[in-house]
Design goal:
With 79 residues, the chain is an alpha+beta fold. The protein has one helix and four strands; from the N terminus they run E-E-E-E-H. The chain has a four-stranded antiparallel beta sheet, covered by helices on one side. The protein is elongated, with a radius of gyration of 13 Å.
Amino acid sequence: MHRRTVGQYSVEVRTLKAPTGLWKAAYIVEPAGHGGPRDFVMITLLENFDDERSAVDAAMEKGVRHADWLQEARPVCRD
């Protein structure tokens, strides 16, 4: 598992080695400070990757872009 904080969001990447020997990846974007069980988005990449590092890099890049988009699109919550 790999994690990075982007503004008020946390991006987590998970990988899985498929039976074919290729790697799959998914990313999860959730509020960094106070996420709940239903307060996240998970996206699985459709691509296959030859090695785990490539899978992590691709998923993290897309996850960070998604978090940036959320950061710009949603107002900042203040408690």
